[in-house]
Write a structure and sequence with these properties.
D-Maltodextrin-Binding Protein, domain 2, 2 domains, 14 helices, 11 strands, ABC transporter substrate-binding protein, SsuA/THI5
């Protein structure tokens, strides 16, 4: 049976509990999600709630961390077998000499949005106006941090001209904006709609839609995915295939059911007291998801272009994009 942990727990506690459980439950696969309440990661929730993992014969435990960069640390430490996070981490890690691959691609765009606090809306109108201002991201070294830095350069700034501040997601992001600790920030749904609905924020750059992503980043930008260590993939191919089958089935469910039905499967806490808002955001955002779990053509090249600008570890290092993802487990059988 799939195990759920609520609420968020400290990194070291999660690691200790996960390792202990792994010893007591041989064959269990632990997946760490970089913020489980985010709509961009819905496929893993659906696969669990609809029994798709069990149907494939895999015992899956779903854990959560508020930031993708923390989830990445868990994977490298061997505390979990996979991460539900952003594809760009596979490029960042390869630049650091560590090989991980996306095995199921959830989305073809980030599903993120840069918001500006309403009180600063009259002076922050373009990415160039982010200069010397505190900009909220989920964590330092996170995907939101990379994207914020890149977007600043499209406005003529240097990456050093912006000041990312790690504020997490959900309530912590909202609290930071309300308190004035950040003037702008990148977040996802349903956090974005919570601030937009109350008029506390306005959109600066919208990466929740395909058109906005193409304009801002130059093409499709594959983001949410399941990524795993290359060595684990090579020695556990049957388990990886089972995970992929369950998650692709969940992606197909997303495309064939309406937002109301999908919302009925997620925990009530995800709605933050406003189910209608959550459903509306999901209905608008369904275009972000892939239908087959495969990498969108040209997507890795777009991500690498962004990472060369935004990530000092990548820079001009030689990156083998063919080793950042695989379609072996999502490609239809011959």
């Amino acid at each position: 049976m799939t195990a759920w942990r609520w609420p968020f727990v400290a990194l070291l506690l999660v690691c200790a509990v996960t390792c202990a459980q792994a010893q007591g439950r041989p064959g269990r696969i632990s997946l760490m999600v970089g913020g489980i309440e985010k709509q961009i990661y819905l496929p893993v929730i659906l696969a669990s709630r609809l029994g798709y993992f069990e149907a494939q014969g895999v015992d899956v435990e779903v854990l959560t961390e508020p930031s993708g960069v923390n989830a990445e640390d868990q994977l490298l430490a061997g505390a979990v077998q996979g991460v539900i996070g952003f594809y760009d981490h596979t490029i960042d890690l390869q630049a650091k000499g560590k090989l991980v691959r996306s095995v199921v691609q959830f989305s073809r765009i980030p599903g993120e949005v840069v918001l500006v606090a309403a009180r600063h809306g009259s002076v922050i109108r373009t990415p160039a106006d982010l200069k010397e201002r505190p900009v909220g991201v989920t964590g330092l070294g996170s995907s939101t941090g990379f994207l914020v830095k890149y977007l600043a350069t499209t406005g003529g700034l240097k990456t050093s001209d912006v000041h990312p501040l790690a504020v997490g997601a959900g309530d912590s992001f909202i609290d930071a904006m309300r308190a004035g600790r950040i003037h702008a920030g990148m977040t996802t749904e349903p956090t974005a709609s919570r601030l937009l609905t109350t008029g506390e924020a306005q959109v600066l750059v919208d990466l929740r839609i395909v058109e906005g992503t193409r304009q801002a980043l130059g093409g499709l930008y594959p983001a949410a995915c399941l990524y795993m260590r290359e060595d684990w993939i090579s020695t556990h191919r049957s388990q990886v295939r089972a995970l992929a089958a369950a998650l692709v089935r969940a992606l197909q469910y997303l495309q064939t059911h309406d937002a109301q039905e999908i919302a009925s499967l997620v925990p009530e806490s995800f709605f933050a007291g406003n189910r209608a808002m959550y459903v509306a955001a999901l209905d608008r955002g369904k275009e972000m998801f892939t239908t087959d779990g495969r990498m969108p053509p040209g997507g890795p090249e777009t991500v690498l272009q962004v990472m060369r600008v935004a990530d000092r570890h990548v820079g001009q290092r030689k990156i083998d994009l063919g080793r950042t993802y695989t379609e072996d487990f999502t490609r239809p059988p011959p």
